[in-house]
Design goal:
312 residues; 2 domains; Cyclochlorotine biosynthesis protein O; UstYa-like; transmembrane helix; membrane; transmembrane
Length: 312
Amino acid sequence: MSPFEKILASGPSSDREEIAYESVPLRADDDGQPTADNTSMIELAKVQKKLKFFRTGFYITHAFQALFFVFWLFRGSNTSHPLATYRDLKWSGLLGEDWNGLIPNGIGYPLKPTFWGQDHPYYMPEDMFQDFDKSLAMIDRWKYMHNSSSIFVAPDEPRVKRIKPDGTIVELPPFWPWDPLKDGRELYVVRGFHQMHCIFVISEEFTYHYAQTNDSLWTAGHVAHCINTLRDAIMCMADAQPLSYVNGYKNGHATDDQAMMCRDWEELHKFVNSPARGLRIKNVAPAGSKVDKMAPIIPYPDLTEEQLRGLA
């Protein structure tokens, strides 16, 4: 007999058996012994009693389950809903694409072999830092070609999200550094463009230090931030493409004459710089000023195809 049966049953076992016997009309044979039919009826009564016990236990168990569910339901209604995480995102999963969709998936894809040689407008000559004025002039040209790093978003457009370091997702507010626009538009920075900005920052800072001017354009903290930004980009990319010296060990560089499989930077630049969503800026600092003072160009100027692509 199970422990539950002992708890629910009343009286000693002999009494319960007598009750089972008494519940069945007994018939005896000529010798006064119960017949086979009587024995079967007694066994059936015992089985029925056990079934009644298990049925009662079944109902009690379900009653406790129902109470627990009601308790959990009301308790859960007082707590916040679980936060969405990066695992809940629905996007292409391709490295470098905007999982928010502000910049549509496919811009910059498919990957293609790309080589930026000495004829590319952004190429940095290896003797560049030997001439202070030449170095600054070249960096100014890069900044003019690059021009902006942001994309407009209207007040009625959905705000993008950001992934926090713990993997949860929250809203990312846009910004506008100048007097508010009448239409209320604000900006989001495009990560790749910010990384290019950091190239300019480090180049300018190195120009000043290499020339031993004891001067600086940027704070040490900003330079460190830019180095961290580029390190983040390198580690995020985790580029596994192999390299070697094509002209013999230490004859040239380990990247010489080797194209990379890349997204299309020019296509991304063209999309972001489109008049419908792009921002162009100009330096309004007084002539001879060491520090740039940028201001938006409104209305948006007419641009050539090369300017849209960041090549002129």
